[in-house]
Amino acid sequence: MNPTSTEAPVAIVAGGGAMPLRVAAACRATGRPYVAVLLEGFARPEEWRGVPQITIRLGAAGAGIDWMKRQGAHQIVLVGDIRRPSILSLRPDAGAAKHLARIGMKAFSGDDTLLSAVRQMLREEGFDPVGPTRFLAEAQSPAGLLTQAGPNAMALADIARGVAVVRALGALDVGQGAVVQQGLVLGVEAIEGTDALLSRVGTLRREGPGGVLVKLVKPGQDREVDMPALGPRTVENAVAAGLAGIAFEAEGALLLDRAQMVAHADSAGLFLLAIRPDDHVGAATAGAAT
């Protein structure tokens, strides 16, 4: 079989959450065969019944690669939530140890650097690593307002402040999000993830108009393979944290179940705004002065 043929199965390397299952559903809808590499402690095997699958721990990359080759997979989709472990806790198998030796100090760097090294390793093994956007193009949004509520002048100023902060974080390969209220940075996203960030800032909010969560693609980040994801739970947590809205990069975020997100936001009076970050650069001072 020609490994580049559409008859070759897609290998879905699945972490937690619903996004891997959405990719699987898209494959079924188009008749594309697929197999699943389930990451232990993140993906749930019971949700993949009937699908050719293997469950591996994060340190068993060698076993996963060998299995995908035996399945005839060529394209690999890395998708889903994982918590990055410490290097010492990986307990790499022989194949993973070989690749870790090649990756070297990049394994101790930021997520973008590590992901870039992992993608290069997969290419060297003969695979074609692709992103969920190949299968879930409808999960992205062009610039514009998705909800009935929209940002006022203060919220726009907070968005501009958030854009500046998140871009600075992203340049250091730290995180993709920040929460800003009335010009004050209540919290920034690092390894803990968006849900934990929203939980934390809920205890820090000031009186008056609520803040804004800003989520952007990092500068230089591979938009196809590693893109911020937002879903109904993000909206629920933003409402619980007392935020006024969520601003995310247009065509730079995956929206999990957009209809449910919008319904939750509308019922709470929260805005969802897809932005072009450059449109908000330098707008913080002007917005605050109005």
UniProtKB/TrEMBL annotation:
Gene3D superfamilies: 3.40.140.80, 3.40.50.20. Transmembrane segments: none annotated. Residues 142-272 form the LpxI C-terminal domain. Residues 10-138 form the LpxI N-terminal domain. Pfam families: LpxI_C, LpxI_N. InterPro entries: LpxI, LpxI_C, LpxI_C_sf, LpxI_N. It comes from the Bacteria. This is LpxI family protein. It comes from Muricoccus vinaceus.
